[in-house]
Design a protein that fits this description.
5-stranded mixed beta sheet; about 40% helix; alpha/beta; Alpha-D-Glucose-1,6-Bisphosphate, Chain A, domain 3; 4 domains; 19 helices; globular; binds 2-acetamido-2-deoxy-1-O-phosphono-alpha-D-galactopyranose; 19 strands
Length: about 550
């Protein structure tokens, strides 16, 4: 196997610690950054193969999102900006875990199984977040991408192209991969192009807001000391003061995700440190790679109110449903949630709003696929990770109506609002910046305060806990992760505990991004939700 010499040589610069086993989880590989160099190199190699296979540009994002600064991670982005397919997640795991001497066999295996034409050109976009480890780890990805397979496989002439975007939010990279592969039909594959498209649509939308005061245009943003803060700063001039942002936790002082950011706010149910909150003021938090957003405010009694992914999905789907009615368009709209969705949100959506609600496993790839089944699929995880998908048919019908010269003004206005809504949304993946612009536009158009939005329904008190166990993989689940099938007896124990509380629900599942088991409980009172979560976590041990 003389032709593999180059891979061998290069991979010895990125050696795998013997015995280390990592799994491509909910959002790629994630662990302490010091264990990831070989993974990055190998994901560079794999992205090149995926690009050859799909004959399209593939993205590689170096980030560990909401995880602490010491961690890092990597995920692959498929041609339309979606998460890589399950079969390739499997290859990623195989390649990552092949011991040093078996790497070439593992690579060859993938090439053969997928019948990859090695003479095909490869194109890979690489991005990274602001973690200190991201610079060297993204270089390791590039080392993998830049290996010219043909020189060792002795095939025909071919080139491996890459474009190193450097610092980007995860959703920006998804967006640019999609733009590149649709020859610009989705937008321009540049950061500037992204700001222009989203901000122009936002400004068009806010023209429909009457009498918006400067106070209503003001928003406090917690950037989690991460990439999102940097990108909000870059974008601000495109907003032409239609949205006036006070940026906190911009990375100049604090540590990434530490006591701040969307995950902290959602899980701790309290405001981040480092932000000035005046009673009644609208605030939001991004997570470490700006693919999640949650809103919140404190009332005059100092009480904290969280508006999470469920409240966001409700606001957006109500807005879209109203526009569809005004436009006289018969399009099927659905909301996709996970088991973490607050029970009150599901009841409100199904019983009051009468929209279809689907529940999937955790991880946006599952929600994304479910949302694709509808004309309009609004999907959000409770933690604020989500977006809206419009089918081709829906987009065409909206466009026809917006451009129909014989249409009456009300229907036309609604269709144009829908068009601009489509343009402000990043349909490739959940995107804190895009979601923020959409939410701000909706609140402005409807003349709605954050308190009025919050009052749409009341959340059931809930609690999320993390439990450390020796091997979290012994827990297996079914029914969109709402029931445990192993270990034996665990589900029965949970059922017994749940029966002791009113309006209660609880489930457990192994995290795909951290070495913990997550426990979720909701009940009629906070005390009840807290004690149920505690009791269930004891049952997990
Ligand atoms: P895990 O660690 O598998 O629970 C977490 C989030 C997911 C998703 C991923 C990727 C919760 C309960 N889980 O997954 O929703 O966002 O991270 O970032 O919030």
């Amino acid at each position: 196997m003389a032709q593999f010499e180059e891979v061998s040589k290069q991979s010895s610069q990125h050696p795998k610690p013997a015995g280390l086993v990592l799994q491509y989880g909910t959002a790629g590989f994630r662990t302490n950054a010091k264990h990831l160099d070989h993974i990055m190199f190998r994901m560079g190699l794999l992205a090149t193969l995926r690009s050859k296979k799909t004959k399209a540009t593939i993205g590689v994002m170096v980030t560990a999102s909401h995880n602490p600064e010491e961690d890092n991670g990597v995920k692959l982005i498929d041609p339309m900006g979606e998460m890589v397919t399950p079969a390739w997640e499997g290859y990623a795991t195989q390649l990552a875990n092949a011991e040093q001497g078996d790497l070439l066999t593992a690579l060859k295996d993938i090439i053969e199984k997928e019948s990859i034409n090695m003479s095909q050109e490869a194109n890979v976009f690489v991005g990274k977040d602001t973690r200190s480890s991201s610079a060297s780890l993204s270089q390791a990805v590039l080392d993998g991408v830049l290996l010219n397979f043909d020189s060792f496989l002795n095939f025909f002439l071919h080139f491996s192209h890459h474009f190193y975007y450097g610092l980007v939010t995860t959703p920006q990279l998804h967006y640019m991969v999609c733009c590149q592969n649709t020859q610009g039909k989705y937008g321009e594959a540049t950061i500037e192009g992204y700001y222009r498209k989203l901000c122009q649509a936002f400004i068009q939308l806010t023209k429909n807001a009457s009498n918006c005061t400067d106070d209503q245009k003001h928003l406090s943003v917690d950037g989690a000391n991460g990439i999102g803060a940097l990108k909000v700063r870059e974008m601000e001039s495109h907003l032409r003061r239609e949205l006036q942002i006070s940026l906190f936790n911009d990375g100049s002082k604090g540590k990434l995700n530490h006591q701040c950011g969307a995950d902290f706010v959602k899980v701790q149910q309290k405001p981040p440190t480092g932000i000035n909150i005046n009673p009644g003021e609208r605030c939001c938090s991004f997570d470490g790679d700006a693919d999640r957003i949650v809103y919140y405010y404190t009332d005059s009694d100092g009480q904290f109110h969280l508006l999470d992914g469920d409240k966001i999905a409700t606001l957006i789907s109500t807005f879209l449903k109203e526009l569809l009615t005004q436009a006289g368009l018969d399009l099927k709209i659905a909301v996709v949630q996970t088991a973490y969705a607050n029970g009150s949100s599901t009841h409100y959506l199904e019983d009051t709003m009468k929209v279809i609600v689907r529940c999937t496993k955790t991880g946006v790839k599952h929600l994304h696929h479910a949302a694709q089944e509808f004309d309009i699929g609004v999907y959000f995880e409770a933690n604020g990770h989500g977006t809206v998908l419009f089918s081709k048919v829906a987009e065409e019908k909206i466009q026809q109506l917006a451009e129909d010269p014989n249409m009456n003004d009300e229907r036309k206005r609604a269709a144009r609002l829908l068009q601009n809504t489509i343009n402000v949304i990043n349909q490739t993946v959940g995107d804190a910046i895009s979601d923020m612009l959409l939410i701000e536009a909706i609140l402005a158009i409807r003349g709605m305060t954050v308190q009025q939005w919050d009052a749409i329904y009341s959340d059931l008190p809930n609690r999320q806990l993390k439990v450390k166990v020796s091997d979290r993989r012994v827990i297996d689940t079914t029914d969109a992760e709402r029931r445990a099938v192993s270990p034996a007896g665990l589900q029965e124990a949970i059922d017994t505990l749940v029966k002791k509380h009113r309006l209660a629900r609880s489930f457990v599942r192994p995290s795909g991004t951290e070495d913990v088991v997550r426990v979720y409980a909701e009940a009629e009172t906070q005390e009840s939700a807290d004690s149920l979560a505690h009791e269930v976590s004891l049952a997990v041990y």
